[in-house]
Specification:
The protein has eleven helices and 14 strands. By secondary structure, the protein is an alpha/beta fold. The protein has two domains: 41-147 and 291-317, Response regulator (Rossmann fold); 150-267, Response regulator (Rossmann fold, 3-Layer(aba) Sandwich). The longest helix has 32 residues, at 2-33.
Length: 343
């Protein structure tokens, strides 16, 4: 008697899954159809792009907003997949819905999984170009990558680490991001090691080791950083490669009263990180220009759709913001953006 019941449950589960998927697609389709509606008026666009990212931190919000403004100014609409939706989408689900909805192009922050590589290739098979930003899947059929080279990042981080080295032994813990490919993480780490080998000198030695973090979860980052700081032999310098890691590390230093014991080199100039730099809670943060990233990603899609060709790689600008130049950096950013808005 149990077999028929089991079969019925299995059938009902399949039907329920199909219904949920259909409702998700209908919601997304409805959202896409009304994207151009603003303040009671309707504006039409020649192209519709999709922004696919599973991190809603300040950095990615800024990248998206700048990309959206640039797209609108150039006759295109850019929508964040799943924004304001009643359910959360995975990256793969967002890609699948975008492909089914026949968007004109996709701007993707990949997570390094095989599932996302397959989704990129599926988009290509459906004549939908995909541009990767900040993380790359070079073995996929994406049309372009907007980001920084591992060499440039390694040099900048290495320079800031070297400034913090003390006489004698220095333990440096480099947090890596599980969403980055192992090859990219290894190249980045090797470049830092190479830089420090030339910069440390005879009286300073450096032991560099890595710790992988799944930065999609604040809790995961907090737990890993807590383990590093409260474990056996804590590092002298902790190196973060994204804003989630940086803000978790900053909070931990204050909570555990370790600001003077462990120096943290962060990533991205968010408002909280800028505040930490001003208070000397952090000595430095490597940051990108969110506006440049957003605009170049839209530009790459537009160029490919217009010509059928686009550069394989768009290099972005990185710079180090320190507690010494933070106010000058903020002023320069305001001036640069004011100038762009006026042009």
């Amino acid at each position: 008697m149990k077999k028929p019941v089991t079969s019925i449950i299995a059938v009902l589960s399949v039907l329920l899954l199909g219904l949920v998927t259909a409702l998700m697609w209908l919601y997304f389709r409805s959202s896409m159809d009304s994207i151009a509606e603003s303040a009671g008026s309707m504006q039409t666009y020649d192209r519709h792009f999709l922004f696919v990212c599973d991190d809603d931190s300040e950095m990615w919000q800024s990248v998206y907003q700048y990309g959206q403004s640039y797209a609108n100014a150039n006759g295109a609409a850019l929508e964040w997949a799943g924004e304001h939706a009643p359910v959360s989408y995975t990256l793969a689900e967002s890609m699948e819905i975008g492909i089914s909805s026949k968007v004109d192009g996709i701007i993707l922050v990949p997570d390094g999984t095989e599932e996302i590589r397959e989704a990129i290739d599926s988009a290509a098979e459906n004549d939908i170009p995909v541009v990767n930003i900040m993380r790359d899947t070079s073995d996929s059929r994406r049309v372009s990558f907007v980001g920084a080279s591992n060499y440039q990042m390694g040099e900048l981080y290495g320079e800031q680490i070297a400034k913090l080295l003390k006489t004698g032994e220095n333990r440096v813990c480099l947090l890596t991001d599980s969403a980055n490919s192992p090859v990219a993480s290894n190249l980045f780490s090797s470049q830092i090691t190479s830089y420090l080998k030339n910069a440390s000198g005879d009286r300073r030695t450096v032991t560099l080791y890595t710790q992988e973090v799944d930065s999609r979860s604040d809790f995961e980052a907090e737990e890993v950083i807590r383990g590093i700081l409260m474990g056996g032999e804590r590092p002298d310098i902790l190196v973060c490669v994204n804003s989630v890691q940086t803000e978790c590390a900053e909070t931990a230093l204050v909570d555990y009263n370790m600001v003077d014991d462990v120096r943290v080199i962060g990533y991205y100039a968010s408002q909280s990180i800028l505040s930490a730099l001003r208070q000397d809670l952090l000595p430095a943060a490597i940051t990108c220009d969110a506006r440049q990233v957003g605009e170049l990603s839209v530009e790459a899609l537009t160029e490919y759709l217009s010509t059928g060709h686009v550069s394989d790689y768009f290099d972005i600008t990185l710079e180090a913001v320190t507690n010494e130049n933070v106010n000058r950096y903020v002023r320069s950013q305001h001036m640069a953006y004011s100038s762009r808005e006026g042009s």
